[in-house]
Amino acid sequence: MEEPIPVTRDVDQGTAKLMPDLDRPRAWLLTVDGAPQSYVDLDDPEHLEFEYARRIAHVLDTAAEPHRALDVLHLGGGALTLPRYVAATRPGSRQLVVEADRGLLGLVAEHLPLREGSGVEVRAADARAELEAAPGGSADVIVADVFGGSRVPAHLTSLEYAREAARVLRPGGRYAANLADGAPFTFLRSQVAGFAAVFAHVCLIAEPAVLRGRRFGNAVLVASHGELPVAALARRAAGDAFPARVEHGEALERFTAGAAPVRDADAVGSPEPPGGAFGIG
Q1: Model confidence over 34-72: pLDDT tens digits?
Q2: Which residue from 103, 159, 184, 246 puts its CA 20 to 30 A from 213's CA?
């Protein structure tokens, strides 16, 4: 059997590379301009290599009783890691993936095709435009993992955007976003403030070193009008290879103190990661 070889292709937002994992026969790492975007194991879609993906998976796992099908809207696609995970763990789920980079979608469809009957629809479009076009109360979960290069685009950071997410979710539905920031957390604090102004319940899942400002890193923001299962999320996050903490209630209010939501008119993207924060080779 021939060993897989790396694939390099220019896509809409830079140079994408698919690099095989030599330890797992049909697993691939996707990078764009050197920044890791996705990791997919075609033989084992429940294997999640990236810590932030596992944390979002904890939100998906606790969104309903095990194996119950969900309607999930994914804003940002990458190599479709989490849609594959939901299809494997919750058969019969209906999922729409919105990804603006048509070149990237073509690369993934060619080299990392979805399984037959996955229930995943992939659409090349802008995430905010598709969110605004989605019917009210049509999603059980919205997963936002949109990065233009290494930054979350500004139009996906505003109070108006958070209101659209709330409109599209069903009562008790969950919103989960992959964000990235470092001290003094100007961006992350404004995001928590914006979603707390729209949703009744918000929490943040991140490694303690990130929350203490010791390094730049990912944080998963979770929001819902219904009570969040913070104890269950905390247990799962604490048991990961790189344990994370769930900030909520008074601790999250202290973290966010003084921050205000941003509106479309003055929204900015997330900060550029410091050199070497996420890059690979």
Answers
A1: 989 999 999 999 999 999 999 999 999 999 999 999 999
A2: 159
Q: What is d(CA 80, CA 48) in angstroms, rounded to the nearest whole number? A: 12
* Cα-only R_g, the chain: 18
Distance CA 28, CA 156 (A): 28
Segment 84-111, tens digit of pLDDT: 999 999 999 999 999 999 999 999 999 9
Tokens of 269: 């993207």
Strand-pair category, 120-124 with 94-99: parallel
Question: Using CA atoms, how far apart are residues 7 and 109, in angstroms rounded to an integer?
Answer: 13
Token duo for residue 13: 């937002």
- Which of 148, 152, 201 is closest to 174 using CA atoms? 201
Burial of 23 (0-12, 13-18, 19+ CB in 10 A): exposed
Contact indicator for 69, 89 with CB cutoff of 8 Å:
no
Q: How is residue 156 annotated by DSSP?
A: G
Dist CA 99 CA 19 (whole Å): 21
pTM of the model: 0.96
